[in-house]
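Help wanted!
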Amino acid sequence: MTTTYGPLAIWAVVLVVGAATFAIRYSFVYLFGRIDGVPPRVEAALRFVPAAVLAALVAPAMIDPGPTLAATVLDDRFVAGTLAAAVAWYTDDMFATIVVGLVALWAAGAAL
Amino acid sequence: MLPDDLFAGVRATLPLLLGLIPFGLVAGIAAVDAGLSPTQAVGLSAIVFAGAAQLAAIDLLGRDASLAVVVLTAVVINLRMMMYSASIAPYFESFRRRWAVVSSYLLTDMSYALAISKFRNDSGTDRRWYYLGAAAAMWGVWQIATAVGALLGTNVPSEWGIGFAVPLVFLSLLVSDVSDRPRLVAAVVGGGVAVVGGAWPLNLGLIGGALAGVTAGAAVDNWGRDA
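Answered by r_m:
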C-alpha cells in the first residue's frame, strides 16, 4: 500500500516525531537534579508500553479472524507469523526471524 | 590522538550490528514501499533515529492513517526512552551541555543497554568517549543501512510481499521484550484488542490495544505483588 500524503505532510511527520522523540530522550537528562526521576506509577506503566504497542502492531498483520477457527489458522500470514515467532523465541535473532517469516509466507502462499 | 575509550565503544557495538543492519535495511525498504522517497526514508532515520517508531510511522503512512495517529503511535512507542533518560541522567551530569544534548539524541535501546552496563561496572572508562563511540557507530550504521534499503527497495516488486518484513521486525522485538508474565499479559491483551478492533475507524484498534495492554500488564503486576 502506498501513501497518498504529499512530501509536506511526510516531512511534517518526520520533524514532529523527531522533535518529540528528542524531548523524551533529553527529558530527565535536562531535569536531573531538579526532580527525583520518573514517578513509580509512571515507570510501572512505561514498562509495559513496548509489549502492548508491539503486539497491537503485530497481531492485526498476522491474524485475520475468519468465519471459522480453521480459516483463521490456515491463513498464510498466520502460519508464517507463528513459525517466525518460534524462530524469534529460540534464536533471539532478528535476521533469522525475518528470513524464516518471509520464506514461510511465500511457501504458504503457494501451498494454501 | 583519539582516545582508546572511543574505539572501545565502537568495538562494543560489533555484536549488535547483526541485528541493526537487517533492521535498518527493512526500515529503508519499507519506507520506499510505503511511498516515501529515498531522501524521506533517510531523513526519517537521521532525524527520528528510532527503528520501531520509524517502522510504525511508515506502516501507518502507507495505510493513509490520519497524521495524528501516525505521530501519536510513533511517540508512544518512544515513551520507553523516558526510562532510559532517567536512568542514564546521573552519568551524563558531568557532560557539558552540548555533549549531553548530542548524547541524548543518540539514546536508543541498544546504546542505553551497552552504556549502562559499562557505566555501572567500570568507573575507569572515559564515559563520554565510550558512549560517543558506541552511539555514533550505531547511528552511522543505521543511516547507511536505511539508505541501502531505500535504494534496494525501489527495485523490489511489491508482489514479493517484502512489506511483511515490517511486522516480522516488530514480532522479533516483541518476543525479546516479553520476559515475564505481566509483559505477556500486556502483549496478549494489546494484540487481542487490536485484532478485534481491526476495522474500527481512525486506527482506534491500535491505540485501544496499546492502552488496554498497558493497563492489563500493570494490573497483573500489581496483583502479583500484593498476593
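OP: Thanks! One thing I noticed: The longest helix of chain A spans residues 7-31.
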